[in-house]
Design a protein that fits this description.
This protein has 124 residues and is mostly helical. The protein contains three helices and three strands; from the N terminus they run αβββαα. It has a domain of 35 residues.
């Protein structure tokens, strides 16, 4: 009798937990749909999805977020081009700041080691 009760309890618990997992998955899916509808209503777009990824016939990947095309153009925007130009140019000031920060970091590390060695010698 105990074995039958144990199996029955196990089956009942498995069904309850399975039902809870299914409910959780459904709630997550309904939450995502509700969030997309809310985002679209706030942004004023008529898209059915907040994020759309599609491929053009030329082989480019187009990404549209809230009705605005954010990727897929072959020519970079002026801000992206300016950023790339700034990243590629070497700055003497930047190199000097890099060297100064490395020197300060080395000096702080050496000072901290000396302080820790003195503290260590005191408590020995």
């Amino acid at each position: 009798m105990r074995a039958i009760r144990g199996v029955r309890t196990f089956v009942e618990q498995s069904l309850v937990y399975g039902l809870l997992v299914i409910m959780l998955i459904l709630m997550i899916l309904f939450g995502i749909v509700a969030a997309e509808k809310g985002i679209n209503s706030l942004s004023g777009t008529d898209e059915s999805q907040a994020l759309v990824v599609s491929e053009s016939p030329q082989g480019e990947t187009n990404v549209t977020i809230l009705g605005k095309n954010v990727a897929g153009s072959s020519e970079p925007s002026w801000s992206q081009q300016l950023s790339r130009d700034l990243e590629q140019s070497a700055s003497p000031t930047g190199e000097a700041v890099d060297q100064a920060s490395i020197s300060i970091g080395t000096w702080l590390e050496a000072g901290a080691r000396k302080v820790l060695d003195v503290i260590n010698d005191i408590f020995r």
